[in-house]
Design brief:
The chain is about 55% helix and about 10% strand. The protein has about 220 residues and is α/β, with parallel strands linked by helices. Helix 8 crosses helix 9.
Length: about 220
């Protein structure tokens, strides 16, 4: 039996299906069929109070089902939280990390390192967003204003805050290259197929985005 857990960060994403559909498709592709049961949460990756996740874990414990998550950062962006779930007595599988067995010493080490990257990314995004918005505020930008110029400046600040390199994307890129996918078009297709998010939150990659990713990582 397989129980899926999906998470989106905002109500807007939840209503539009942005991100959610990609997770559902990834899980279905991984299992070859729909999961027996699914729980969907609308919450930040750093928030520990997750009613739907608690329900999913409880269901796994009572039925012996395996918890399936499309991506590691969809489970959480907090190392302690991820490890506590893995150590809770249930079997957890990550679609984007099929080779990792959390109960194996090597697998646990890799999982801990990737979880640390996810937590680091969350904290850096938060820090950069606060700093960028603080600068915008000192320049007289009214956040949330209908003024197109102010809105554009606020949006630019948000984009600047999320311009860091995604370590998980780079890991996938290295894997794709090792499989012979060397052109930016091939890598873009591979990242899209695996549901990896771009810096703007989309799961659709293009050659130009891959080039920028590699340039930032250089």
């Amino acid at each position: 039996m397989h129980i899926a857990y999906y998470r989106v960060s905002t109500d807007k994403q939840g209503r539009s299906g942005l991100g959610l559909e990609a997770q559902q498709e990834a899980v279905k592709r991984f299992l070859g069929t729909d999961p027996d049961l699914a729980f969907t949460e609308v919450e930040s990756g750093g928030k520990k109070d997750r009613p739907e996740l608690a329900k999913a874990i409880a269901e796994c414990k009572s039925t012996g089902a395996t918890l399936i998550v499309a991506k590691l950062d969809r489970l959480a962006r907090d190392v302690k939280m991820i490890l506590s779930i893995v150590d809770s007595g249930i079997c957890v599988r990550f679609v984007d990390l099929p080779e990792i067995n959390p109960n194996d010493p090597t697998g646990r080490l890799m999982l801990t390192m990737l979880a640390a990257f996810a937590e680091f990314e969350r904290k850096i995004i938060s820090k950069r967003t606060k700093e960028a918005l603080a600068v915008a505020k000192t320049r007289g930008v009214k956040l949330g204003s209908a003024n197109s110029k102010a809105g554009g400046q606020a949006r630019a600040a948000q984009l600047a805050a999320t311009s860091q390199v995604d370590p998980q994307a780079l890991i996938i890129v290295r894997d794709l290259k090792s499989m012979g996918m060397t052109t930016t078009r091939q890598i873009a297709a591979g990242l899209t197929e695996r549901g990896i998010k771009t810096s703007t939150g989309s799961t659709q990659w293009h050659s130009a985005q891959v080039s920028r990713l590699l340039a930032r990582a250089a």
